[in-house]
Structure to design on (237 residues):
């Protein structure tokens, strides 16, 4: 809102998303993407505490405060997930007090918070999360497929608009919190991780397609572009 009112006073407003331009019609804008923490620009190993094995690795998170609805749907589907041999890292958030039956079992690890999120996202198969701008940009940088469940009461419904950026490109599945159910959630995961034979090898056809679509989103190097713009203006002024 501040940018909408006062952005016209700037030489340029740098955009994290291309579509933001439609909200800033009175501003001179340049799409740069959003720079992230240093750890996202290097390769990080999986943390030692992540469940070992061959099953698909899911990272489930709801931001620093957690997400009650995401925690609940995971809890309801935990038996299904274990039966399908998924490995799960569940970041429940500092404010949540969920006590899961399988807490820290062989294939399920629960944490309130972790500083190793870059390594988790880089090396997992799928992220299940809210859709704040920070998360969206981390998924773009790591080219990671996701199931996004926007917070339905975010200001101007901005989380759903964020999620649509990846859903429309085919890199993410968008699920409405108010309509989600155990059955829909489980069927979505089954569809994404359905194994199909291709060139004599077993593949997750839909997951692989989502990965390909995510690579198409990651076409801009934000830090370099912003640095070049700053250097240009330093010379000009």
């Amino acid at each position: 809102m501040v940018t909408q009112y006062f952005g016209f006073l700037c030489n340029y407003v740098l955009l994290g998303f291309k579509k933001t331009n439609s909200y800033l019609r009175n501003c001179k804008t340049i799409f740069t993407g959003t720079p992230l923490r240093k750890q996202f620009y290097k390769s990080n190993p999986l943390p030692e505490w992540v469940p070992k094995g061959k099953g698909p690795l899911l990272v489930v998170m709801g931001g620093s405060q957690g997400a009650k609805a995401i925690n609940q749907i995971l809890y309801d589907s935990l038996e299904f997930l274990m039966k399908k041999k998924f490995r799960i890292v569940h970041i429940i958030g500092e404010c949540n007090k969920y006590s899961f039956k399988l807490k820290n079992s062989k294939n399920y690890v629960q944490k309130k918070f972790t500083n190793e999120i870059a390594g988790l996202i880089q090396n997992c198969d799928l992220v299940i999360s809210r859709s704040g701008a920070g998360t969206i940009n981390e998924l773009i940088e790591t080219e990671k497929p996701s199931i996004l469940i926007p917070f339905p009461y975010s200001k101007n419904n901005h989380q759903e608009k964020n999620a649509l950026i990846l859903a429309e490109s085919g890199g993410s599945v968008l699920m409405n919190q108010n309509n989600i159910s155990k059955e829909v959630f489980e069927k979505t995961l089954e569809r994404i991780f359905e194994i199909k034979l291709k060139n004599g090898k077993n593949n997750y056809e839909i997951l692989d397609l989502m990965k390909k679509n995510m690579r198409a989103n990651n076409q801009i190097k934000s830090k370099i572009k912003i640095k070049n713009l700053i250097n240009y203006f330093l010379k000009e002024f």
Notes: The beta strands are 13-15, 29-31, 57-61, 87-91, 108-111, 126-129, 146-148, 172-174, 195-198, 201-204. The longest helix spans residues 222-236. The chain has two domains: 2-33+220-236, 39-217.
